[in-house]
From TrEMBL:
Region (Regulatory domain): 399-519
Domain of life: Bacteria
Record function comment: Catalyzes the condensation of the acetyl group of acetyl-CoA with 3-methyl-2-oxobutanoate (2-ketoisovalerate) to form 3-carboxy-3-hydroxy-4-methylpentanoate (2-isopropylmalate).
Residues covered by the Pyruvate carboxyltransferase domain: 11-273
CDD domains: DRE_TIM_IPMS
Entry GO terms, CC: cytoplasm
Organism whose genome encodes this protein: Acidaminobacter hydrogenoformans DSM 2784
Protein name, entry field: 2-isopropylmalate synthase
InterPro entries for the chain: 2-IPM_HCS-like (IPR050073), 2-isopropylmalate_synth_dimer (IPR013709), AIPM/Hcit_synth_CS (IPR002034), Aldolase_TIM (IPR013785), LeuA/HCS_post-cat (IPR054691), LeuA_allosteric_dom_sf (IPR036230), LeuA_bact_synth (IPR005671), PYR_CT (IPR000891)
Keyword annotations from UniProtKB, A to Z: Amino-acid biosynthesis, Branched-chain amino acid biosynthesis, Cytoplasm, Leucine biosynthesis, Manganese, Metal-binding, Transferase
Known pathway: Amino-acid biosynthesis; L-leucine biosynthesis; L-leucine from 3-methyl-2-oxobutanoate: step 1/4
Pfam families hit by this protein: HCS_D2 (PF22617), HMGL-like (PF00682), LeuA_dimer (PF08502)
Co-factor requirement: Mn(2+)
Length: 519
């Protein structure tokens, strides 16, 4: 008995980052930026790039045409209203592409036909057919979109789709223009269209979803399950109003749940992170940290129980690997919800080998610090360990008595600092590049560490007007490096305290081998 091998089902990914995506307020791109983005989309292996709306402006025309000339493999489409002049212009722009496509559209819902187009349904149908035929004189690959399809009368939709297939359309797009539909409703709309058109010609059924109710990806995936063969989407989900379906979520949804959908895309998912970052760099619009797939927290774990599971086996809390979307690694973020397993793991990564007792002490200090700070980074842990191991409270040699700062944008900053050192009070004045530099120079005149300032960071660790500022400095002398911390509601005071804290540590380890050298 011979086995029949079923061909693998694949769907096309139609990227509209450069057209619908660019319709997001604040996401306009220059010609060069669009070309860079288009190259990256080709690298990610999207099937079709909608490079713009050629008639919209000379700049849009130039970018569609340049992208059509530049790309090697990918189909390049331009949007066009159902107007001859739009189609002529779209063709002039895409005709250089290896695989050109004209994408023409007209609205089919009563609301749009009556109030916007001021056309009756029969006139819309006639126009759609005439314009598909018109476009077909130029180009084999014609996509027709029934704008606002999900609020259109389904019978009218079926009629117009049948008519445009006969006129030569090769892809029928069913846009949820205003993000109105639901997964189940959209699914039955798509399977209804699929049944009707399958008897006529083989065409792609495309879906194009907006995110007004946060359902763009859910609706697109439901439609794919119901027989759609093309999904229109954008990188990071940018697009008109609340955006379009996010490409990365569609691609990873299908890849991760292949067991459920049984459908592949041609997307090289390892290019996802890069595409997302490139778009962010170009538009200056960042994705929110909890954004699926590409948000900063998408592969980050903060709570102890999760971190413990992750350390045992990443599949406990990750349904896809960071590598599969092109990230190097996941992140264990230490914060107030973290547990001992993750803390000990971080100590090992940082190169510390501590006794059980030292770890316990450090863990208690870490939990106290984590209560005050949003996240605890490696420098915090190092500072905390150095405090703990050297028991600095007992060696509190340098005490800040008072400080006076004179600073402004038209004068040189000066600092007067008084320190109490082993019971005696010293005072020095110094000028510097800003109040912190002036303070450090004044302090250095008194305590003479001879160290270099390797790093300096100031951040708020509590909120509101009385926020605590935390300064962290790293001082280096020879092969020894230490981190000092200072806390105050005054950021200059926090900075001076951090310097003194680091100086004390440096002094207390100067005759001993370093705990750990930070290069
Ligand atoms: C759902 C979507 O995303 S559709 C795409 C939306 N994107 C854009 O609109 C961005 C690019 N747009 C533009 O640059 C301009 O709107 C242009 C160049 C296309 C047209 O500009 P203008 O001629 O000044 O017209 P305007 O934008 O004010 O109005 C739209 C006109 O197109 C008509 N129209 C709208 N859709 C269609 C269509 N699919 N087919 C035919 N005519 C249409 C409207 O009825 C209106 O016609 P009117 O001028 O005779 O009243
Ligand atoms: C032009 C069409 C496809 C569109 O963007 C929409 O309906 O949202
Ligand atoms: Mg749209």
């Amino acid at each position: 008995m011979s086995t029949i091998i079923q061909p693998e089902k694949t769907i096309k990914i139609f990227d509209t980052t450069l057209r619908d995506g660019e319709q997001s307020p604040g996401c306009s791109m220059t010609l060069k930026e669009k070309i860079d983005m288009a190259r990256q989309l080709e690298k990610m292996k999207v099937d079709i790039i909608e490079a713009g709306f050629a008639i919209a402006s000379p700049g849009d025309f130039e970018s569609v045409q340049t992208i059509a000339k530049e790309l090697k493999e990918t189909s390049v489409a331009s949007l066009a209203r159902a107007l001859e002049k739009d189609i002529d212009t779209a063709w002039e722009a895409v005709k250089y592409a290896k695989r050109p496509r004209i994408h023409t559209f007209i609205a089919t819902s009563d609301i749009h036909m009556q109030y916007k187009l001021k056309m009756d349904p029969e006139a819309v149908l006639e126009r759609a057919v005439a314009m598909v035929k018109y476009a077909k004189r130029y180009c084999e690959d014609i996509e027709f979109s029934a704008e606002d399809a999900t609020r259109s009368n389904p019978e009218f939709l079926h009629r117009i789709f049948e008519a445009v297939i006969k006129a030569g359309a090769t892809t029928l797009n069913v846009p949820d223009t205003v993000g109105y539909t639901t997964p189940m409703e959209y699914s039955s709309l798509i399977s209804g269209i699929r049944e009707k058109v399958d008897g006529i010609h083989k065409v792609d059924i495309s879906v194009h979803c907006h995110n007004d109710l946060g359902l763009a990806v859910a609706n697109s995936l439901a439609a794919v399950k119901a027989g759609a063969t093309q999904v229109e989407c954008t990188v990071n989900g940018i697009g008109e109003r609340a955006g379009n379906a996010a490409l990365e979520e569609i691609a990873m949804g299908l890849a991760t749940r292949y067991d459920y959908y049984g459908i592949k895309t041609g997307i090289d998912t390892t290019q996802i992170a890069r595409s997302s970052k490139l778009l962010t760099a170009i538009t200056g619009v960042s994705v929110q940290p909890n954004k699926a797939i590409v948000g900063a927290n998408a592969f980050a774990h903060e709570s102890g129980i999760h971190q413990h599971g992750m350390l045992a086996n990443a599949s406990t809390y990750e349904i896809m690997t960071p590598e599969s979307v092109g990230l190097r690694t996941n992140a264990m973020v230490l914060g107030k919800h973290s547990g001992r397993h993750a803390f000990e793991d971080r100590l090992k990564t940082l190169g510390y080998e501590l006794s059980k007792e030292e770890i316990n002490r450090a863990f208690d200090d870490f939990k106290m610090l984590a209560d005050k700070k949003k996240t605890v980074d490696d420098r915090d842990i190092e500072a905390l360990l150095q405090d703990d191991v050297m028991n600095l409270e007992e060696h509190n040699k340098y005490k800040l008595q008072r400080f006076i700062i004179n600073s402004g944008n038209t004068i040189t900053s000066t600092a007067t600092i008084a320190l109490e050192i082993e019971g005696k009070v010293f005072e020095e004045v110094s000028a510097g590049d800003g109040p912190v530099d002036a303070s450090y120079k004044a302090v250095e005149k008194m305590i003479k560490t001879g160290a270099t300032l390797e790093d300096y960071k100031i951040q708020s660790i509590t909120e509101a007007e009385d926020a605590q500022g935390e300064a962290v400095v790293k001082l280096k002398k020879g092969s020894r490096a230490v981190t000092g911390r200072g806390l105050s509601t005054d950021i200059i005071e926090a900075s001076i305290l951090a310097y003194l804290n680091a100086a004390q540590k440096l002094e207390s380890i100067s005759d001993e081998p370093p705990i750990r050298v930070i290069s």
